[in-house]
Specification:
Helices cover 18% and strands 33% of the residues. With 668 residues, the protein is of the alpha+beta class. A hairpin with an 8-residue loop joins strand 6 and strand 7.
């Protein structure tokens, strides 16, 4: 049971006033008018307000003691975490040569009377390259026993100059017919425009506003070779009129197709779903006829972070004493990179690079060390402590008197305010020629405010328990969540168990990691639940320094058991089916979820079987539903729909967890 923190004095303002009024007859019997209009009562209320203020400050004393206690153990408040977002730069016109968007380019939201501009900085340089179209292929899907076929349009000059045209798909287009464009240049994250001329109404049969096509780009991912592209503009009416397609490309990878090892983009005939049929999407009856093609790049998308970079900040001159303190101007300060260190300029000796440390416990008189508080911006040099024998011990070197203290670069910013909505970032702070506009086409995410004292008070007992040593399962889990530079949604350390199928063996630490995702409440792509290799490397390196030498550490994603439910129900008479379907799917995706699922909402329990009754329980109390006729539970392919026969339960191993595939709702 936690010890309650007592208030040193819990009297309120009104209690102080009432107590003073009760004492009036004892001291001044003639004073009988105690109304608020009486000047004496006004003085009582004034003194009560002053007393309440002093009591508030006195009750803060335990917090001060806690802060000092944390300082003794070298515990500081965690700095804020900056939000991240891809920012798209549009050009005013295509360039025939490379255009560089420099690293550190500053972009911001619009400043208003009540809201200052929120600044973001690009994480890397980006080069907008002109496309080098090398090959155009037409792929015909297998039909009537015929294998898949490629047709190579070898004379690209005819296509760029214009000619009678050719069928880009089969005469009667089939699902998975596709038109391929191969490029010599890597156009990852570029804005690619295709200016095309088509035979008028050549692709008959479709709704021009809902063409049954999808643009895709080849990647290096062997499990998912093609990734959909975001189509910003289509003025061709579904390949039935002269116009242009403008698409945003994801990361690309080379793929060898018909002896052409190139970067590929394709437009493919898609399978029309039931929902799309209801919206009016129809298939092509005949193939569109392409007569002319030109392509160009119109910008690119660059990752950016909610930070501002401060450069060459002069802190002052050293006075040669121990324990000196200086304040950096911009706070809060983000976690420092390797090159972000203090420079001490000594006349006649040049520059010295000093190293930031967490504390001075391991520092001596020759250690060029300092500490830096990320929240307050206070930079501190090591103290001098008198020893029992009367000698003075230096915990860290002292910058020579008169030396200049310069911080060449650090980053500030971060916090929840950086989690801006789509389109909020619209101002180019750093001028770049030929850039006409910028925007974030998706919301920023990941920004967290600096740790509060209350949060630190919760974290401190955990830190004192494990003392940065990984021994127990909870130690590994706590330390994994504290690993710098890694965003973890959920972690589970399996303790050694008897050797059984799917379980760890004694002497091995088996850690399951699920990465944090942007929108955990909806459908989760399979690749979004796999921790990046870089995060696994950081986790391994961080925990290897803290685990026992005899421990074998293995970090991986859990075994995902993909499931799909098929629900038959009847909606209320006055309810819209689309609304009811969305509510059903929302419940299923939230409940059958490795991050926020389960009855507790903290993620489906590891190793816990799923029963059909769990799904019924999840769907209880749905609004606008008369009754649920039937629910069927299926195993599913990763991210896919129902597979095989319905099941009463889904069994799993200790390192398994449930994840949602594509659920289906049928109205009866």
């Amino acid at each position: 049971m936690a010890l309650a923190v007592p208030k040193l004095d819990d009297r309120s303002f009104q209690q102080l006033v009432d107590e003073a009024k009760k004492r009036i007859p004892h001291y001044v019997q003639e004073w009988t008018d105690h109304n608020v209009s009486d000047p004496g009562v006004t003085l009582i209320e004034l003194f009560a307000w002053m007393t309440e203020t002093m009591l508030y400050r006195m009750n803060r004393v335990p917090d001060l003691h806690y802060v000092k206690f944390m300082e003794i153990f070298g515990i500081t408040l965690k700095p804020p975490v900056p939000a991240k977002v891809p920012v798209t730069f549009w050009l005013s016109a295509p360039k025939e040569t490379d255009l560089i968007i420099p690293h550190g380019t500053e972009v911001a939201s619009t400043q208003t009377e009540t809201q200052p501009a929120i600044l973001f900085t690009t994480n890397e340089a980006f080069t907008v390259r002109p496309p080098e179209l090398t090959a155009v292929l037409s792929e015909l899907a297998p039909s009537r026993g015929k294998p898949k076929r490629f047709t190579d349009l070898q004379n690209l000059r005819r296509l760029s100059a214009g000619f009678d045209g050719f069928e880009v798909f089969s005469s009667t287009p089939l699902v998975d017919d596709a038109l391929y464009f191969g490029f010599n240049t890597d156009l990852s994250h570029h804005i690619l425009r295709f200016d095309m001329e088509w035979d008028a109404a050549g692709g008959a049969g479709i709704d021009p506003t809902l063409p049954p096509i999808v643009w895709e780009s080849a990647t290096n991912d062997n499990e998912k070779r093609w990734i959909p592209c975001d189509v910003e503009l289509d003025t061709t009416k579904g390949m039935n009129d002269n116009g242009r397609f403008q698409i945003h490309l994801p990361g690309m990878g080379k793929l060898k197709i018909k002896n052409n090892n190139l970067y590929w983009v394709r437009v493919r005939v898609k399978e029309i779903s039931n929902a799309e049929k209801q919206d009016g999407m129809r298939p092509y009856q005949v193939s569109p006829q392409l007569r002319k093609l030109e392509c160009s790049t119109w910008g690119g998308t660059v990752p950016a972070t909610h930070t501002q970079t401060m450069v060459n900040e002069f802190l002052g001159q050293s006075d040669g004493s121990t324990g000196q303190r200086y304040l950096l101007q911009a706070t809060p300060i983000l976690a420092r990179r390797e090159e972000e260190q203090l420079i001490v300029q000594i006349e006649g000796e040049g520059n010295q690079t000093w190293t930031e440390v967490k504390d001075f416990g391991d520092s001596d008189a020759d250690s060029h060390h300092y500490t830096l508080d990320s929240v307050t911006g206070e930079l501190r040099f090591g103290p001098a402590v008198r020893q029992p024998d009367g000698t003075i011990k230096l915990y860290g070197a002292v910058p020579p008197r008169g030396s200049n203290l310069i911080f060449p670069q650090y980053r500030c910013g971060g916090g929840d305010e950086g989690n801006v909505e789509t389109g909020v970032i619209n101002t180019l702070v750093t001028s770049i020629p030929y850039v006409s506009r910028i925007s974030n086409r998706e919301p920023a995410w990941g920004g967290l405010d600096a740790e509060t004292l209350e949060d630190a008070m919760v974290r401190t007992p955990k830190l004192l328990r494990h003392r940065e040593r990984a021994v127990t399962a909870s130690d590994f889990e706590d330390l994994a969540l504290e690993t710098p530079g890694v965003t973890i949604g959920r972690v589970k350390c399996l303790q050694p168990l008897p050797s059984e199928a799917g379980r760890v063996t004694p002497g091995q630490v088996y850690m399951l990691v699920i990465p944090r995702v942007r929108y955990p409440a909806g459908y989760l792509e399979p690749n979004s639940l796999e921790p990046p290799d870089a995060d696994i490397e950081r986790l391994t390196r961080y925990l290897d320094e803290r685990r026992l030498l005899t421990t074998r550490l293995h970090i991986r994603a859990p075994a995902y058991y993909w499931v799909a439910a098929r629900v038959q129900l009847r909606a209320s008479i006055d309810a819209e089916q689309a609304t009811v379907e969305a509510e059903v799917l929302n419940r299923l995706y939230k409940f059958l979820n490795p991050l926020i699922g389960g009855s507790a909402g903290t993620g489906w329990p590891f190793g816990r079987e799923l029963f059909l009754s769990d799904v019924y329980q999840c769907l209880r109390g749905l609004p606008n539903v008369q009754f649920i006729r039937n629910v069927e539970l299926y195993a599913a392919e990763p991210g896919g729909g129902p597979q095989g026969d319905p099941k009463e339960s889904i069994d799993m191993v200790a390192h398994g967890v449930i994840a949602s595939g594509l659920h289906e709702v049928e109205f009866v």
